[in-house]
Amino acid sequence: MKRILLLLISFFISFSIQAQNVSPDEKVTYRDLDSLQLKLHIFKPEKMASSKGAVVLIHGGGWNNGSPSAFYSQARHLADRGLVVFCPEYRVRKRNNTTIFEAVEDVQIAMRYVRKHAKKYGANPNKIVVGGGSAGGQLALSLAFIEPLTDGIKAKDYKPNLLILFNPVMGMSKEGYAHRLVAKELEEKGRTWQSFSPRQNIHKSFPDMLVMLGDRDKVIPLPLAKDVQSKCEALGVKCEMKVYEGAEHSFFNEGYWRKKGYEKGTINRWYYETMQEMDDFLVTEGYLEGSFEFSIPEKAIYPVRLK
């Protein structure tokens, strides 16, 4: 597995505007670490959906890098649909010389902040969806099973009510992702890689989840993902899985075509399809009302690997 897969940063557009033109309505500090202030990038709806739901979207980047802007277009769409959305910053290796441990610690505290302040934004603290892409998917899943890493908080403070996962890291075993690095980092913290690996920790109180991934993803092998789905089903946990034929890791990003060598101006059809899947799932789960259909440009294609 090439190390470049650790460094993926997502770039998105919404169905109508470019990501670089999308910006949050507010930024607030949820954690002050002296020389570093970690913020939530917040997108507010003009009118809340009747569910009064909230969404937390966690960017990927292999716990190495990345930015909340990776999910700005998804966040804006969901806010336009009536949900308040939070995109958290968290510490990463390249910027902060940290490990997966600190990343999990930060998202626990970010989620606690969202739950504690949900009513301020018109949201129900017990209707919080957590989404994530790649390593951000592992961080989203981690909120359902990793014990508190900071004194003074409890698991109920950060447990998600629903999960939406874009090619999430679901296991860190040798056949999974970043096994050696994660195992080394966690051993130094007195932990095991198993304790942070979703596949090893599925339990019956996991929330319902939607998983979207490509069948050619080398970071998230399909057999591993299917095994997670089987474990969920055996425990009565809903794990809806959508597999996209021909798609590799990060296929859901608007700019995925660049990675595949396509010319400028190529439109990624998978971007729209995963947005549609997300919206439909939230309707099914009662967080959004009514149907919404994305208008997919006629020139949109599936940017599969070029020979």
What does this structure look like?
The chain has 307 residues and is α/β, with parallel strands linked by helices. The chain has nine helices and eight strands. The chain has an eight-stranded mixed sheet, with helices on both faces. A hairpin with a 2-residue loop joins strand 1 and strand 2 (36-43). The two termini are 19 Å apart. Mean pLDDT is 92; it is low at 1-18.
Please give the structural blueprint.
Blueprint: E1 26-33, E2 36-43, E3 54-58, H1 72-80, E4 84-88, H2 93-96, H3 100-117, E5 128-133, H4 135-142, H5 155-158, E6 162-166, H6 179-188, E7 209-214, H7 222-234, E8 239-244, H8 256-259, H9 269-284
Parallel strand pairs: 3-4, 3-5, 5-6, 6-7, 7-8
Antiparallel strand pairs: 1-2, 2-4
Number of helices: 9
Helix content: 25-40%
Structural class: alpha/beta
Shape: globular
- The low-confidence parts are 1-18
Overall pLDDT metric: 92
Order of neighbouring strands in the sheet with most strands: 1-2-4-3-5-6-7-8
How many extended strands?
8
Q: How are helices and strands ordered from N to C?
A: EEEHEHHEHHEHEHEHH
The N- to C-terminal Cα distance equals: 19 Å
Beta-strand share of residues: 15-25%
Please state the CA-atom Rg, rounded to the nearest Å.
18 Å
Biggest sheet character = 8 strands, mixed
Summarize the structure.
The chain is an alpha/beta fold. Helices cover 28% and strands 16% of the residues. An eight-stranded mixed sheet has the order 1-2-4-3-5-6-7-8, sandwiched between helices.
Core attributes:
single chain, 307 residues, alpha/beta, 8-stranded mixed beta sheet, 9 helices, disordered N terminus
